[in-house]
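Study this pair:
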Amino acid sequence: MSQPYYLQGNAFNVRMNSIVGWLARHGVSLLGSAEMSVRGRKSGQMQRIPVNSHTYEGTQYLVSARGHSQWVRNMRVAGGGELRVGRKIRTFTAVEIADDEQKVLIVRAYLERWGWEVNQYFQGITAKSTDAELLAACPNHPVFRITVEG
């Protein structure tokens, strides 16, 4: 059985993520970025990663450009987490979108907004790809609908 798709970051990506996360923790959001915290499924400790939440038709989503990453695996167990920009912390619940046909619409809109940053992780898929191409890529890119509490 093959492993689920996951593209690990190189040293540059890891460094950039740490800078974007640090900025978010200190109140600077780059184009809507935030630092997400989700409880680790094994350690129980909060794990932090910078994310770009995406709004589609009035609903917020988290799309995993890199595939089935650790934060995705943690989110599946935790069912939510926190988004932080400076002192503003928003708690959210998350539900994974299982319907790939629904994900096509969300992923296309995500790539229209964030493609300049994330296209490299989508194995040749862009916002201009056909529905069939996006549908084929959707199992590799988990999507969570998030509901911010309060």
In short: The first strand starts at residue 33 and ends at 39. The chain has a mean pLDDT of 94. The radius of gyration is 15 Å. The helical segments are 11-25, 70-78, 100-118, 131-137.
